[in-house]
């Protein structure tokens, strides 16, 4: 079964996490861009993360994509804290220093479009944490995210140090989905391979 | 750690599932006490019993703690206050409350700071947040008087009564 699609964008593509990508993901996790995060020291954790990425997508709790540019993994797009019944999700992009803002937003944009069209998610949140690259805020606002709140000291960076979290939201103006009768949907699990004979 | 404590006029205590159902139902059956959340009032007493069971389970995992606030002189239940979504790594949590109509600003000013002090001193959390229905003037006044700062508005957090609910966020930061 498949729940996370490959999607192309100008200059690259997003794709599901795969065990073959663990070395590249490990390199990504050596460059954490969130303040207070340390480089990952145990590669084994990434095997579990790939497992979780499938489970989270299957149960509509989250979705994770690798960002591939020029044939190399340069980042990840993550959707987490997914609330299907409230049609909202939090998004995040983690990138290598080499990931450009253009590719960052293009990757984020195609993932949002997928979640909108496939799952009818309407409300996308994004948290920029004080200390991250400042240009990210302008990049996500160009996608339609609006500043919503500044959560003071909401991110812990050390034993007794904290950073403010700037929360942005993009709320789609598309109509909400109309509930169907139970049983009308023949693919309730949203398996992208539902028509594939194995 | 003792989770029950007193102020000059109020007893602040964790609920007892077997005995507090009727009092909690009497509080939460009034729609006005939870309009700011917003949440529907309870319709039957069994819901209060279920709520007490959920409170007990959430407390077991230290995910949340809810206190009943009683007048020491009469034992009358005048409020329920909860700390929930406790994030022990980030040291933050959300406060939520329901005040009976008889609970005035003077009373609130006595027991809420005591609860906040308990959370900052005993639980050693750093940030406490309150989310209320956007534009709720009465809650805004209460929060302002208690020293909470407005941080913004989170749009379309859920549906209630056919409306998209936006939530105003307020917080207070520990100075300890």
Question: What's the helix and strand layout?
Answer:
The complex is a heterodimer of chains A (198) and B (176).
Chain A: E1 7-9, E2 12-16, H1 22-28, H2 44-58, E3 63-69, E4 72-83, E5 88-95, H3 101-119, E6 123-129, H4 135-142, E7 146-156, E8 162-171
Parallel strand pairs in A: 5-6
Antiparallel strand pairs in A: 1-2, 2-3, 3-4, 4-5, 6-8, 7-8
Helix pairs in contact in A: 3-4
Chain B: E1 5-6, E2 10-13, H1 21-28, H2 45-60, E3 65-71, E4 77-87, E5 92-99, H3 105-121, E6 127-133, H4 137-145, E7 149-160, E8 163-173
Parallel strand pairs in B: 5-6
Antiparallel strand pairs in B: 1-2, 2-3, 3-4, 4-5, 6-8, 7-8
Helix pairs in contact in B: 1-2
CATH homologous superfamily classification of chain A? Gcn5-related N-acetyltransferase (GNAT)
C-alpha geometry of chain B: globular
Number of domains of chain A: 1
Structural class of chain A: alpha+beta
CATH class of chain B: Alpha Beta
Report strand % of chain B. Answer: 35-45%
- The name of the CATH topology of chain B is Aminopeptidase
How far apart are the first and last residues' alpha carbons of chain B, in Å? 19 Å
Strand line-up across the major sheet of chain A: 1-2-3-4-5-6-8-7
Spans of at least 5 consecutive residues with low confidence of chain B: none
| Major sheet strand order of chain B | 1-2-3-4-5-6-8-7
Distance between the termini of chain A: 10 Å
**Percent helix range of chain B:** 25-40%
CATH architectural label of chain A: 3-Layer(aba) Sandwich
Oligomer kind: heterodimer
**Largest inter-chain interface?**
A-B, 22 and 20 residues
Radius of gyration of chain B equals 16 Å
Number of domains of chain B: 1
